[in-house]
TrEMBL record:
The keyword Oxidoreductase applies. Thiol-specific peroxidase that catalyzes the reduction of hydrogen peroxide and organic hydroperoxides to water and alcohols, respectively. Plays a role in cell protection against oxidative stress by detoxifying peroxides and as sensor of hydrogen peroxide-mediated signaling events. CDD domains: PRX_BCP. GO terms for biological process: cell redox homeostasis; cellular response to oxidative stress. This is thioredoxin-dependent peroxiredoxin. One of its GO terms (molecular function) is thioredoxin peroxidase activity. Its EC number is 1.11.1.24. It comes from Phytopseudomonas argentinensis. InterPro entries: AhpC/TSA, Peroxiredoxin_AhpC-typ, Peroxiredoxin_BCP/PrxQ, Thioredoxin-like_sf, Thioredoxin_domain.
Length: 156
């Protein structure tokens, strides 16, 4: 079952850089989960760099950031090290986390159709309830919008 705004997000755990990620372990903190298509591609690198550069501001707003794609842990480790990401990346090779958040969509590239990750971001409150979502994200300005929402939610 896909998630819905103002509803609790089902607990999940998944392999991630730095060890397994467990949603329940993050209760008490807000969580930004951002889904992106592929490590080391221009848009995904720019998006990750935006979250990296705003990491301290998110931390000040009691918010943890985690990125998700279908890439392997090895690819994630290299991407994280190369870009200096201070947050973890989840490897969702079986698409279970993508399925929970309903981010796998039919896409087209050069006339060919394929299933891929629709760039999306989710803001979960400190009680594990989904408070905001951004789907079909365009990278420019996106991190600022998510940060503003996280700061406002933290004050609520």
């Amino acid at each position: 079952m896909a998630i819905a705004i103002d509803s609790p997000v089902a607990d999940f755990s998944a392999p991630a850089t730095g060890g397994d990620f467990d949603l329940a372990a993050h209760k008490g903190k807000q969580l930004v989960i951002y889904f992106y298509p592929k490590d080391n591609t221009p848009g995904c690198t720019t998006q990750g760099q935006g979250f990296r550069d705003a990491h301290e501001a998110f931390a000040a707003a009691n918010t943890v950031i985690v990125g998700v794609s279908r890439d392997s842990l090895k690819t994630h480790e290299n991407f994280k090290a190369k870009q200096g990401f201070p947050f973890e990346l989840i490897s969702d090779k079986d698409e279970s986390v993508c399925g929970l958040f309903d981010v796998i969509k039919l896409k087209k590239l050069y006339g060919k159709e394929y299933l891929g990750i629709d760039r999306s971001t989710f803001l979960i409150d400190k009680h594990g309830v989904l408070r905001q979502e951004w789907r079909g994200v365009k990278v420019p300005g996106h991190v600022d919008a998510v940060l503003a929402a996280a700061q406002a939610l933290n004050k609520a």
